[in-house]
Known about the structure:
3 helices
Amino acid sequence: MSAPQPRAPGARRPAPRSLSCLSDLDGGAAPGPRPCRPPASPGRAPRPPPAPRGRAPCPPPVILRRARSLPSSPERRPTAAGGGRRHRVRFADALGLELAQVKVFHAAEDPAVPLHVLSRLAIDADLRCGAQARGLALRCLVPDFRPPVEAADFAERLRRQRVCLERVACSDLGLSGTVRVRNLAFEKQVAVRYTFSGWRSAHEAVAAWRGPAGGGAEDVFAFAFPVPPFLLALGSRVHFALRYRVAGAEYWDNNDGRDYSLTCRDHALHMPRGECEESWIHFI
């Protein structure tokens, strides 16, 4: 073999087949090792260049990768074409609850069914026999007068009598009502005197202060007293009057000498079909 011929100065070298050796194109460059960067490991970010002196180093970037072993959430799962969202069904026992509630009634201990439930059940039985509605008579005390506070001369009566009944109501606990008086002094006392025997015997109940009224010129008191069961007889009556003591004086409101009275009557109640068919279910 013959030795290679020396290259004349300034002559061009042929281009190499591999374009990676770009340094060979420059004939005047001094041969030497080229710096190379090692390949980065997968899943890690390359290290940042060192920070200059006097400055805090920048924190490395955080790369969040999603675990491939955990399934995606049900909300992000693609649904089939034309299919809707899936619904989950969970039973009560899976949550630690009971599937059913059982009530045990012993023969010696009858359940205490409220009276209004029994009345609705009775109406329901009649409705199932073909009746559309049935009148239920409720026996109670009914006032024989209109509420005085709704009268047009209420303010004039209060100015003349210094005390006047506002309204009265009847319930299972007895009678209750409100009284309005003129604010004549700080110390005052309001009481109701009532009778069940036509004033052959009488009882009293002290009213309690409820609050001011009329811009401070008047006060409102509330009273209540029980009604014995024997008064639920048809035609029984209750009479009462109001007494107001203030500044050493005494004032009365007895309905212009006629007394306030309530009579025991049968109050008709009409209950439609839709409200009484499920009375026993509401009780349970």
